[in-house]
């Protein structure tokens, strides 16, 4: 398994856990729809009005604690990962295999994004994008610090 596959597999497990939690929250039944915590926070923010720090706290809970929003984010993450992983290496004429693409690049030719050493750059940018996707989970105990994305300058 490659480094790209490791990140994608780990990230998928984190997303699956997020989905499990969001589905449990969505399944909760309330006497009134406005009793849901995210709806209560939205109502409070609307009643207070303005742009104070207090309103900001209520609005952030209303937005990010809403299971429908979380599930939409999960779907978008899964689509981005699937798209990234489905991309094919750009092979020069006469080099029909991925191994040929990998052999064309030498260590150091791709700068900071050397993962996989492929000459078309796919491994490097795929790894960097997956690292960005995994960054919100860096507080998890099993998040490897070496996955932290390289800063964009």
State the main characteristics.
single chain; 153 residues; mainly alpha; 6 helices; elongated; DUF6221
Task: Please provide a written account of the structure.
Helix 1 packs parallel to helix 6. With 153 residues, the chain is mainly alpha-helical. It starts with a helix and ends in a 19-residue tail after the last helix. It is elongated, with a radius of gyration of 21 Å. The chain folds into two domains: 86 residues, no CATH class; 41 residues, no CATH class. It is built from six helices and no strands. It is 58% helix and 0% strand.
User: Could you give a short account of the major beta sheet?
Assistant: none
Total count of helical runs of at least 4 residues: 6
Q: Please report the total strand number as a whole number.
A: 0
Kindly provide the radius of gyration, computed on alpha-carbon positions and rounded to a whole number of angstroms. Answer: 21 Å
| Strand residues, percent | under 5%
What's the number of structural domains?
A: 2
Structural class, by secondary structure, is mainly alpha
Low-pLDDT residue intervals, each spanning 5 or more residues: 110-116
Distance between the termini: 30 Å
State the shape.
elongated
Order of helices and strands: HHHHHH
Mean pLDDT: 80
């Amino acid at each position: 398994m490659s480094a790209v596959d490791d990140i994608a597999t780990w990230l998928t497990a984190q997303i699956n856990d997020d989905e499990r939690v969001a589905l449990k929250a969505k399944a909760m039944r309330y006497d009134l729809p406005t009793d849901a915590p995210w709806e209560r926070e939205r109502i409070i923010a609307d009643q207070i009005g303005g742009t104070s720090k207090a309103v900001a706290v209520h609005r952030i809970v209303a937005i990010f604690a809403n299971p429908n929003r979380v599930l939409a984010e999960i779907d978008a993450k899964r689509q981005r990962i699937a798209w990234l992983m489905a991309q094919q290496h750009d092979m020069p004429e006469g080099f029909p295999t991925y191994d040929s693409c990998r052999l064309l690049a030498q260590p150091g030719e791709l700068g900071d994004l050397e993962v996989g050493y492929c000459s078309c750059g796919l491994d490097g940018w795929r790894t960097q994008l997956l690292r960005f996707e995994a960054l919100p989970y860096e507080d998890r105990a099993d998040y490897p610090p070496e996955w932290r994305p390289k800063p964009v300058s």
